[in-house]
Amino acid sequence: MKSEQNASQQGWRGVSLGEQHLPVDLRSQDNLQALQQAIMEDARAEAQQIVENAQVQAQVLFHEAEAQVKSEGDAILERANKEVETLRSQSAASAKIEAQKIKLQRREELLRRVFASARERLAGAPQWPDYEQIVRLLVKDAAEHMDTDNALVRSDPETRKVLTNEVLADLARELGIYLRAGDPLKRGTGVIVETPDGHRRYDNTLETRLARMQNSLRTTVYRILSGETA
Which of 44, 90, 145, 156 is the Cys-Cys partner for 185 at CB 3.0 to 4.6 Å? Predict the structure, then answer.
């Protein structure tokens, strides 16, 4: 019995309960209450320490998370700024391309109108004072391109009034070939020279000549329309 009491006493004496030590004699009710109170205070102190440790750990985790979020937020913001700059550059480039496209469209429309107007005015060419000389040049140019000694000269009704049989005979002597009038043209103003079998022909109407010259005239015409001198 004594040995059990001694072991118990040694075990209680080894437990620290704040500022108190477990009493040796536990046979009284007061001593039991004191033991219970000491155990409760020790448990509360331990729980408080656990809570404090948890709070510290939570604070550390919070700061780490806050730093990570800030870092990620800065990275996201930087990417967003870069994307905005990229979009802005793309928008500026797109706007520049679109402006150039509109400018070219307006230029093409202006040139189209100029050449369309020129084609319409060509219908009145037979009324020009020097039209006979122009017709002579048209026939000679076409005949030289044909490289033949026998050709038909087709012309529109108004040009035919200028290109008389006498003028054709004069041109034939000058060129050293046989020329005669062919069927009248249904479209165009000027002449078309062709072989009698119709296998070869050279269209030298004013409208066709304008179409052939149009590409080479585009830059010159646009400079004139833009008020440029060179």
Answer: 156
pTM comes to 0.55
pLDDT 10s digits, 158-174? 999 999 999 999 999 99
Q: How far apart are CA 41 and CA 47, in angstroms?
A: 10
CATH number for the domain harbouring residue 197: 3.30.2320.30
Range of the domain at 6: 2-63
Residue carrying the six token digits 């369309």: 116
Q: What is the Cα–Cα distance from 20 to 40, expressed in whole angstroms?
A: 12
- For residue 41, give every residue at least 6 positions away whose Cβ sits within 8 Å of its Cβ, in sequence order, or none: 17, 18
Give domain status of residue 42, yes or no.
yes
